[in-house]
Each structure stands twice: as C-alpha cells, then as structure tokens.
Write a structure and sequence with these properties.
The protein is an alpha/beta fold. 31% of the residues lie in helices and 31% in strands. The chain starts with 8 loop residues before the first helix and ends with a strand. The mean pLDDT is 93.
C-alpha cells in the first residue's frame, strides 16, 4: 500500500484510537456461512487487530500487515498470534489457506495492483478456497490522509474477480452512511 499514513507511529496510534469501536463482525458472520470453522485464514491488513481477534475465535488465523508499527502493535496485543509482514499486492508467502479476508484494505490498491493481488490470492488458496473482502462503494479515486483510495461499484468488482473466482455474493451495507460499502464473497475456481 502506498503512502506514509500507516508507516509512522503517530498515524498508527491515531488510527487505533479512531477504529477502536469499529470491527467487521457482521462481515465475518457472513464469511462463516461459507467457510467452516477451524479453516486456515489469512487476513490481509490486520491493522489494530479488531477483526483478527474475532476471526481468531473461529478460524486458524494468520494476520498480516505491511506496516512495521501495526505488526509491533499486533504482536504485543496478541503475543500468541501468527502475523506476517505482507504487501497486499504481492502476498509473498509459501503458506496456503482455506480463506482470505480483508476489511477495507484492498481499496488502497490501484486497479492493476488489485488485479495482481486477486491472481496471487487465487494462487495461495487451497481448492474451493473462499475470499471475503469489503470495499468503499462509489466511483473514482482520491488521496485521503496521504493514502490512495479507490472506490468500487459491483459491476467492476465482478469483472475483476470473476476471472479467478466464482462470485457468491456482492452485497451493499452501511459502515457510516447508507450503502457506502460493498462486501464480496467468492470461491476459487
């Protein structure tokens, strides 16, 4: 991910405070409808660890982030957790997973980077693996706090993911405003 926002101690501490009451429990509940408990799951962009903590109650979870400050925070908060320094585009790991999850992470990727990430996700998923990702809904892109943010509509997500994945669902939901977000769940082809 581009930008320095998640790569300074001040910005990471600010983000942890801002996100303290935010988690993806409703998204994870939907993932659980499609991916059995105890499955191996990679979380891309674990950040403060709110979703990792929920996922850890259900799955054999490996968290990841590309920010050393977030990784340090995660390792201190969850000393028995498994965490990797991974870039959301290249996902350089030899590990294989039953599922891959991210909550508002992949929107930091430009379209070509997202295409690379999608292909790589399919490569590190076991047969019939499941992905679950959320995105900000809309069109266009912007720089927010020095970070690139790409907005998505269902048709465009469907087009990008369908080469490697069978789309199970793309649903609109509300994070802050009505229908401001999209949840994508898909199965490896």
């Amino acid at each position: 991910m581009k930008g320095e926002y998640y790569h300074t101690i001040e910005s990471v501490e600010e983000y942890i405070k801002l996100a303290k009451d935010v988690n993806g429990k409703e998204l994870i509940d939907q993932l659980a409808d499609h991916l059995p408990a105890k499955s191996t799951v990679l979380e891309i962009g674990s950040g403060p660890g709110s979703d990792w903590e929920i996922l850890n109650e259900i799955y054999d979870i490996v968290g990841s982030d590309n920010s050393a400050y977030f990784l340090n925070h995660l390792k201190k908060k969850f000393p028995n957790g498994k965490f990797r320094d991974l870039n959301a585009v290249s996902l350089k790991t030899d590990e294989m997973f039953d599922g891959i999850y991210s909550n508002k992470v992949l929107h930091h990727l430009k379209q070509d980077e997202l295409i690379t990430s999608i292909k790589r996700q399919s490569e590190i998923l076991n047969k019939n693996g499941i992905i679950c990702h959320s995105f900000w809904k809309g069109e266009g892109d912007e720089i927010f706090k020095g970070l690139y943010v790409n907005y998505w509509i269902e048709k465009n997500l469907r087009k990008l993911f369908s080469k490697y994945f069978e789309i199970i669902l793309i649903d609109q939901y509300q994070e802050f405003e009505e229908n401001d977000s999209l949840l994508l769940i898909a199965k490896k082809k």
